Amino acid sequence: TRVAVLISGTGSNMAALIEAANAPDCAYEVVLVLSNVEGAGGLKLAEAAGVRTATIAHKPFGKDREAHEKAVDQALRDAGVEVIALAGYMRVLTPWLVGGWRGRMLNIHPSLLPLYPGLDTHARAIAAGDAEAGCTVHLVTEGVDEGPILGQARVPIQQGDTPALLAERVKTAEHRLYPQQLDVFCRGLERA
Ligand code: GRF
C-alpha cells in the first residue's frame, strides 16, 4: 500500500514508519513525506532515508484552509497515495479533505483517547493524577481526535514525571505502535 506521511515538525513517528517499511514483509511503503512547514526537521530525516518529500506551506493560502488542502490533495493523488498517515501534522482538517480520504487516513495521538483530545496531553494526564498514559492510533473523522480507535499502547506515569519525561516515554511507545497499526491496517485493505 502506498502511504504518505504528513508532518509539521520533528518527524520521529514518520522516521519510525519509514524504518519499519524496510522490513521485507511490511504491507506498506512510504512514497511521500509532506510537510506544511518549510524546513521541518522531519524533511531531512525523510530525505536521508531516500523518501520523496514535498512542502506545501499553508501560510500563502491565508485563511482559506480548503485551498491549501486542495494543493495537498493534488500532490497526494499525483504520487498515487492510497493511505495517509498523519504524524504530528498540526493542522485541523476540513470536512472536505476528511471526506475525500474517509477510511484511508490515520492519526497518532499522544493520549489514551477518548481521554485528552487536543494539546498538552501529558501535562493534563499528570495534573489529573493518572497512573498511566499512552498513545492511540485512530481513523480520522471530522471531529478532532475522535475517529474509531485502531490500537493503543500504555505506559506508566512515574513519580516526579514532568510532561517532557512522560512525552519521551510515550514517544517510545508511539514508535512501536504506529508502524504496527499501519501495517495491520494496510493488510486489511489489501484483503478487502
Ligand atoms: C507525537 O507525539 C504525536 O502523537 C502527535 O504529535 C507528535 C509528533 O511527534 N500527534 P513527531 O514529529 O513524530 O516526533
Overview of this structure, please?
One of its GO terms (molecular function) is phosphoribosylglycinamide formyltransferase activity. Pathway: Purine metabolism; IMP biosynthesis via de novo pathway; N(2)-formyl-N(1)-(5-phospho-D-ribosyl)glycinamide from N(1)-(5-phospho-D-ribosyl)glycinamide (10-formyl THF route): step 1/1. It catalyses: N(1)-(5-phospho-beta-D-ribosyl)glycinamide + (6R)-10-formyltetrahydrofolate = N(2)-formyl-N(1)-(5-phospho-beta-D-ribosyl)glycinamide + (6S)-5,6,7,8-tetrahydrofolate + H(+). The record marks 145 as: Raises pKa of active site His. Belongs to the GART family. It is a single chain. Helix 1 (12-21) links the parallel strand 1 and strand 2 (29-35). This protein has helices at 12-21, 41-48, 65-78, 95-100, 121-127, 163-191; strands at residues 2-7, 29-35, 53-55, 83-86, 105-109, 132-139, 149-156. The chain has one domain (2-191): Formyl transferase, N-terminal domain (Rossmann fold, 3-Layer(aba) Sandwich). The chain contains six helices and seven strands. The mean pLDDT is 97. The protein is α/β, with parallel strands linked by helices and 192 residues long. Helix 5 crosses helix 6 (163-191). The relative contact order is 0.17. Strands 3-2-1-4-5-6-7 form a seven-stranded mixed sheet, sandwiched between helices. The structure holds 5-O-phosphono-beta-D-ribofuranosylamine. 5-O-phosphono-beta-D-ribofuranosylamine binds at residues 7, 9-14, 42, 87-88, 108-110, 135, 171, 174.
